[in-house]
From TrEMBL:
It comes from the Bacteria. This is DUF937 domain-containing protein. It comes from Dokdonella ginsengisoli. Coiled coil: none annotated. InterPro entries: DUF937 (IPR009282), EF_Hand_1_Ca_BS (IPR018247), YidB-like (IPR027405).
Length: 225
């Protein structure tokens, strides 16, 4: 599997980043920097889920369901609003008003429920994921939650298309994601995922974890094109 993280980032053109920045209320440069941290977090979460046979089957099924979804349509669903409800309301529904997966979230193209995606990826650590991303990127926890909700279905769509194109079964997809996770760690972007999974083992995302994140992010993001 080619670099999934880069494939996702390449799909987000300047107009998409500008739209996301407007939703978050930040400038495009800050949004792009946060996206470069958030995408490896989502991909790494999927890789951790796919580390077991059962998890790999679940990720494979979810990726297949999202395969072929148009990125513009996904962004339109989560940013454009429906029936005048507005993007903020839609994203609030997706996040269920807080941590955990939403029940009855926003339907993506094809009738899929966007609300369950983040909960499926991070499980009980969704709050840690949004907190960690918010602090590491400087956009805050609420914006981080919105950003992850925007990006998760995009990552799933790209993963599904790549999996189908290469004819990967669940085991093959799990192995490919494991390789992708290694690339993330080698690039210096694995610190945030490690912090979400609690590097110090105390069950909470602590200052020591975030200091490790910051050190790795400073080394990793500066080297990006």
């Amino acid at each position: 599997m080619s670099n999934l993280t880069n494939q996702v980032l390449e799909r987000l053109d300047p107009s998409s980043i500008q739209a996301i920045a407007a939703q978050l209320g930040v400038d495009p440069a800050q949004a792009q920097a946060a996206i470069q941290q958030a995408v490896p977090l989502v991909v790494g979460g999927l890789a951790r889920n796919a580390a077991t046979d059962e998890g790999a089957s679940a990720v494979h099924s979810a990726a297949t369901a999202h395969s072929g979804m148009d990125i513009g349509s996904i962004l339109g669903s989560v940013l454009g609003g429906a029936g005048g409800s507005g993007a903020g309301s839609i994203l609030g529904d997706m996040l269920g008003g807080g941590g955990g997966a939403a029940s009855g979230g926003t339907a993506l193209p094809g009738g899929l429920d966007a609300g369950s995606i983040l909960g499926s990826i991070f499980g009980g650590r969704q709050d840690q994921a949004t907190q960690g991303l918010g602090q590491a990127s400087g956009i805050g926890t609420q914006n981080a939650g919105q950003l992850l909700a925007i990006l998760a279905p995009i990552v799933m769509s790209v993963l599904g298309s790549m999996s189908q194109r290469q004819g990967l079964n669940p085991g093959g997809l799990g192995g490919a994601l494991a390789q992708e996770n290694q690339r993330i760690n080698q690039s210096g972007n694995g610190g945030l995922l490690g912090a979400v999974l609690d590097q110090d083992g105390d069950g909470q995302l602590g200052l020591g974890d975030l200091l490790k994140v910051g050190a790795e992010m400073l080394g990793g993001t500066r080297g990006r094109a």
